[in-house]
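--- STAGE predict ---
source: upstream dedup step, 1 unique chain passed
mode: sequence only
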Amino acid sequence: MTDAAESPSQKPPKQPAKLWQIALALGIGAIGGYIFLQMRLPLAWMMGAMCLTTAAAIAGVPIRMATKLRTGFLAILGVMLGSAFRPEIVQHLGEWVLTSVAMLAYVVLAGSLVYVYFRRFAGYDRATAYFSATPGGLSEMITIGTAMGGDERVISLTHGARILLVVLTVPLFFRYFIGYEPPAGAVTGASLVSIPLYDLGLLALCAVVGAALAKLARIPAAMLVGPMLVSAVVHLGGLTTHAPPFELVAIAQVVIGTAIGCRFAGTKMALVRRTVGVTIISTALLLAMTVVFALLVHLITSDIRTLDVVLAFAPGGLAEMSLVALAIGGDTAFVSSHHIIRIIFVVIFAPILFRLLIGRVLRREKAAAADD
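--- STAGE serialize ---
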């Protein structure tokens, strides 16, 4: 690593977020969302919250986000994503197998390309470069990468900046180059007061049961994936046709956007400038490969829109890219399912491949240093 990043051992321990810091962050996020809503930008509540809280965090405003608050709203989003699963999806499962294989090939090739970039041009050590380049499993890559000797702050900041850049650029690309016009309210769906109590109770049950089962099964992103899977079963079975009310979805967007911005809090400006600068180029490489793969997949499976493949392959977070798909009229079930497969693949195989491939190199280097 270069001198710009300090060692993980020098990082001060995190202090619990205080209520006023969380309230301040959410207030700033809501203001940002409202501004973006007035500008008629896509995914306004999330993008506005993300941009304004990021600017505030980098400027040194003492904002924080409570992890439990974010994960709670992830469960709501999971139920919403599950509501996109309809019986007619079954006939497309054969094509989804092909696109899933292509997506895993994309993860390996794109991750390898960015790893080389981080090593040769950014000067990152092997562990930091590897776990920063892996497109998926943010919290898992930070935890595992740090345990493997990587720089926690660089890995965290790289993934956070990548998600921010992808969420910021992809909707704007569809808005200004594809001609997508966001709805006036920014969030579609039924209102809280118009959904029957039976359906609201069933949706709440999907969130609670799904989260509990996913945690027991130790599924990655349990608070999002579990409710989504249970909700998908409920909607495929025809027990309800409702999604969570748009008021809750809008609030969830503000919370998630604010959480992205708060990842930059407490980080030194020099490290932010350098890491974000490096991440801009790496994200451009990932998005370029995303477009290439999307075009190839569209040629092979002409029934699947290029838009949906781009969103399914784009190196953003599961919740974030699923919200983008919802906002611009993409196939939410297709997009979220592929991101879940990507996360599971990355979380399971990334540490194994690191030990098999890079771990051997590190052991040889240590042995050589000991001989000297």
